[in-house]
Design goal:
The protein is of the alpha/beta class and 352 residues long. The protein has 11 helices and 12 strands.
Amino acid sequence: MREVAVVTFGQSRHVRDSAETSEVEMLMPVLHDVLARTGLTAGEIDFTCSGSSDYLAGRAFSFTMALDGVGAWPPISESHVEMDGAWALYEAWVKILTGEAETALVYAYGKSSPGEVRDVLTRQLDPYYLAPLWPDSVALAALQARALIDAGLTDERELAGIAARSRAAAADNPYAQLRGAVPVGEPLAAPLHTGDCPPVSDGAAAVVLAAGDTARRLTERPAWIRGLDHRIEAHSPGVRDLTDSPSTRLAAERAGYFERPVDTVELHAPFTSQEVVLRRALNLDGPAGADIRINPSGGALAANPVMAAGLIRIGEAAARIQRGESRRALAHATSGPCLQQNLVAVLEGEAR
């Protein structure tokens, strides 16, 4: 199988409201940044793939406007997924593996501020039985948190500790929206408080992938993708065990995560209770996970640009490898209610 690596990663400074900035204006500096660091032009990229949601933008085919930031002339090979950018990266990875591309540009963006993102995300639900009840994303996460507490797998004190640890880690992340100490906050949807939930975020991210010697030529420290897999749970939250994530466990197994220890884990857990579920699925609790850094960037609790937060997890893991702060890392992305869809990537530095 061909070697494929993340050669560079960039992201915007995530903010609560970017009303004065369009999606294209938000995206262009990030794209220019990652391309400049590789020395490539848009015309030298073999394949471009993006992830976004028309529901956030409130108009059909909104992703075509973002192509103005890429530059579609001369004509480019381009694709789009109505998913988090982590799934766009998966498509680009497959494209390179099959030999149809040597380099790929992957980007994702989301502006949640123009509408009520909690209501927008109800459009992910079953349209016949669940969506008409309008349970929003926070209410569904609260049901998951309650299931964990009732099963004796966590409590509100542990959840508050996860929030505090994540946002303290974000103090060194210049792109994070929330940094440093954040109070538990007011009750939002029992048992969750505002501190257990992600901020409303506007932001964008991009990575450049390359194969083999091309990756080595473009960067001194490629972050090699050793495994990448994604799985899905049943659509309805009512027919699955919300305290477990077998799809995450299976994706991690297929990606090779359990073969050797990792030192860094970037989890896409927008709610504190979801980190508990993911840690259990990945065997991160107990002695095995004692030396593993979980969400050193602050994770989605520090900044949660919908449709880009999962790609950012892969980018943050890759960036730590490229800085020499990690040797082997896991990155996770999720989509859908209560961790319905899960993607796992395992990345490593250059073998010595």
